[in-house]
Amino acid sequence: MQSITLKEINAAEVCISRRVVLNLSQLSINEMLMLEVHYARCTDFAACDDDFFLSRLGEEGRKILLQYGNPKVREVKFISRFLLRTLFDCVWNLREGDYRITKGEHGKPYLQVEGRSAYFNLSHTGDYIICVLSDREAGIDMEHRGTPRLEVARRFFHPHEVARLEAASPEEQRVLFFNYWAAKESYLKFTGSGLSGSLASFEVCFSGGEAWIEKEHSRLPLSLRECPIDKNYSTYLCSPEAEPFTVTPFVL
User: Concatenated DSSP letters for 118-153?
Assistant: First the structure.
């Protein structure tokens, strides 16, 4: 494969950095509430071979190369790490060595940075890798809208969700199933419980263009919003409050 040149990737990083500066320059330090969504498409990296990532990720890249023998899985790991490292640099001015990525009790990755609140969450499905950066906890999930599996819903979803799915038309059912799945995953990733949490222990509700989560008949005090990126995918963002968020493509 022919590698993308360093000049080209530097141009992409500068472009991202400029967008971030423009987004934040209108706010004072005290007013900043940060919530940014960035996404990359794996097909945009088709010309990038292993050497492209190894030259930019160093020891971290060599670990990925040794750990993942499957080329497709390795590609996703390479792109995800490259995306994160570039965003940490451009958005937070964090270089390698300024932070550590650790995992919580149920496997959620956390960014450890001295003197700063910095959170991220990552999702991959189909051709997309999507990341949210925030100064507070956040969870994001993206799911490709394939064929809905009602047997999975009946086993794992809340009874009210199953009833709505069974009453829906085939096309409505396809969209609703993956909206439920992405919304539920975003909430579990927000809380840090991941798949150790029960998908049936809470209900995702949609009405009038809004989405929210109910647990034990009470609406939870958090924000659940759709994050439209591709009509063939369901994407939901979960955060403490409904502050504005930006969506930016990572373009080579």
Answer: -EEEEEEETTEEEEEEESS--EEEEEE-----HHHH
Check if the beta carbon of residue 9 is closer than 8 Å to that of residue 249. Answer: no
Distance CA 150, CA 177 (A): 8
Q: Which tokens sit at 22?
A: 């423009």
Are 248 and 19 within 8 A, CB to CB? yes
Domains by residue range for the chain, with CATH: 6-137+242-249 (3.90.470.20), 142-239 (3.90.470.20)
Angle (CA) 88-89-90 rounded to 5° is 100
First-residue to last-residue Cα distance in the chain = 16
Strands 210-215 and 218-219, sheet pairing: antiparallel
Q: What is the mean pLDDT of the segment spanning 89-99?
A: 91
Q: How far apart are CA 45 and CA 30, in angstroms?
A: 38
How many residues belong to the chain?
252
| 3 state SS of 250 | coil
pLDDT in tens, 6-40: 344 443 443 343 343 333 333 333 345 689 999 99
CA gap 135, 118 in Å, rounded: 5
Q: Name residue 213's beta-bridge partners.
A: 204
